[in-house]
Amino acid sequence: MTPEEMVSRLLYRDGMMLVIDKPAGMAVHRGSPNSKDRNRESLEDHFDTLRFGLPRVPALAHRLDRDTSGCLVLGRHRKALAQLGKLFRNGAIDKTYWAIVEGVPDAEEGVIELPLGRLDDKIGWWMKHDPQGQPAVTKWKVMGGAFISGQNLTWLALELLTGRTHQIRVHCAEMGWPVMGDGIYGSAPRFGGPGMQLHARSIAVPLYKNREPVRVTAPVPLHMKEHLAQCGWPGDDPNMFRISPTEAEVEADLDAAQ
Q1: pLDDT per position as a tens digit, 84-109
Q2: What DSSP string runs through 168-188?
Q3: For residues 135 and 235, what is the distance between their CA atoms, to the nearest angstrom?
Q4: Domain ranges, residue 97
Q5: CATH number of the CATH domain containing 45
Q6: Catalytic site residue 65?
Q7: Can you give the pTM of this predicted structure?
Q8: Catalytic residue among 65, 67, 182, 253
């Protein structure tokens, strides 16, 4: 990824945080020393491009799976990271995902409450439904659907009320409608599949007192457009993206953060 490509993925910028549009297929950071991802390119390798004059490189405030695209929040300095970390831990940040799933839910909307635990301590971060695991709650709503090549597909909007690893993917699979393209919990091949149809569509961050939450939306990635359109998605208005404030506002926020 070139510096220009990295900057082109910036969706929001102020003195405290950045929101970027993470591409599918790239890990947000390098893996552990024994991980196969240790020597692969990661998104974090390119964060230096996003300093915009600050002495520190921005850092991850949370994470997205390698094959999930969309809104990813970075903190621009220690104070911002501490505040963002607290908001994420307390569930104060609204996160909405879009997914194409295989199958049809038996209602128009609902809530999944299934605790999650590690599938196997030897298999990284793969998860499973575990009655003794950590609480995990996902709200979902049907947005559209289609019958394509003998298969029912459904477009869902999902809200994470907790933030467990692989939560949406495991919850959807347990309900009988796995995320399309999921090579771990779904029917897709482990490698070389069509690409997972899961996108962090929008995020709302209540970072500032006496202000409305910062709301950011990420454009639908190319690999999801066809199936979403088949399910009734009308397409994106390009004017809804890139809501960054003016340079004067950025400078004011930087001064406040000193």
Answers
A1: 999 999 999 999 999 999 999 999 99
A2: HHHHHHHTT-PBTT-TTTSSS
A3: 35
A4: 3-257
A5: 3.30.2350.10
A6: yes
A7: 0.89
A8: 65
